[in-house]
Known about the structure:
The protein is an alpha/beta fold. The chain is built from 24 helices and eight strands. β1 (124-129), α7 and β2 form a beta-alpha-beta unit. α11 (250-261) packs antiparallel against α12.
Amino acid sequence: GPAQTSSCASNVRRTSATAPAMAPRRRFATLGCAAAAAWHVAQGLVVPRAPTPLAGSPRRRRCAGPLRPLHAEASDDSSSAEHGDDAGVLNRYSRRITQPREQGASQAMLYATGLTEADMDKGQVGIASVWFEGNPCNMHLLDLAAVTKTSVEAAGLIGMRFNTIGVSDGISMGTEGMCYSLQSRDIIADSVETTMSAQWYDALVALPGCDKNMPGVVMAMGRLNRPALMIYGGTIRAGTPPEGDKKLDIVSAFQSYGEYAYGKISDEERQTIVRHACPGRGACGGMYTANTMASAIEALGMALPYSSSSPADSDEKLGECRERAGAAIRTLLEKNITPRQIMTRAAFENAMTMVMATGGSTNAVLHLIAMARSVGLDLTLDDFQRVSDKTPFLADLKPSGQYVMEDLHNVGGTPALMKYLLDEGYLDGDCLTCTGRTVRENLADVEVSHEPCSLGYAFHDVIRPLATPIKPTGHLQIMRGNLCPDGAVAKITGKEGESFTGTAKVFDSEEAMLAALAEKQIPPGSVVVIRYEGPKGGPGLPEMLTPTSPIMGAGL
């Protein structure tokens, strides 16, 4: 709980003598303050924008708020850059260190990186990748960042790459490692904001790949309010077993354990699924958190068209980095279009609508609320319920459907779905986007084809017609009651029926539940309750895909 977070030096531990009787969690003993701090994240406690001064020391005015661009030889007056009356200036922020004579040391350091005298007058673009090798969602992002740098420089700007941390939800799921996932979002936001501010970069291009990466970088964009756009690392291709044409994805691997535990497949068959579920680079292929947030952010206007649906290894993804990114970020700089002009309430309505239409992850609620807060907007659970009530669930995508994100891209991608929703009155077409144009302008030339793609399926196979939706209203439902007095989020796809009654099987950890499943102690008709896995009990609000997927695999 929060009481433990203040004792960083001692790497907080609970012992049998001090642990509350109601929270017998061994995993907390192995985690220090970083995981306990996730309680603050989930409670919405935000890292202060400026350091709190020590007792007796006056607060310096320059630390009282977000960093602002300063004019070349002068002054603390940066209001002109903030209000856009120096339109066309590309180095609004970087000139603070590249122009003044008193910043000669700054300039000397920049010359050492390879900049020339002419480069000192150019706009500088921070290129932030969430690269690390140990995850298929992220392992290619350093290469995409290098390609993006060439695009930025071809646009007459300076590209400066930097990196931040990440957590693989798929790898850490079901282990204590998952307790670090949620707060990695805020670490990403903090670190990107820190580098951008300290280095005085004029604009930001961010390349995220896994679940918490996307909201993390967009939160940083909102706080900084400098020209910015996101390039999604891209979805993985569908996996296929050596025999048969059944599509596999990461949840196939999760579910295979339940199938094995309840005798539906052999261990050899389980291993075959695991070996072929993830064929290469890219984020989990269904409408899980990564693809949910990527498509929502494209609908929000902070990613270029097709960014969320183009596969990680596709020519389209490479072209987005090589041919489109530099020109787009230059346009944003020239027009001084900033995230707070794009991330409006109407734009968040578009993002929520996209989540409902695609059957997106419940995590979207958590992340969109945090992203909205970064630009001073207040989204609530009631906003999601309102949008869900008026938006039909259309996408036949995994985990509840049969298709993956690659299939949507093959029939027109996210822009085709957005055009369909726009034409039917579900999106606001007047919202500004990171192309410098509105949603309606971006989609003007997009056509929704009714012809099958080369693989034999058509747009309305993947995206149901409005006349025959999967569910006439959204799949996300906000629950209230004695089990969730402050509200909770449920995913109801319409396939579960309208009610369920059964005997509660209560476990005090996901490990205990999985042990019971392995022993076949969970019969059909049970209501599985797992306690102490929230922001305080987990700690860190670990996701429960490891318990829920075997339940599905076991046919329970």
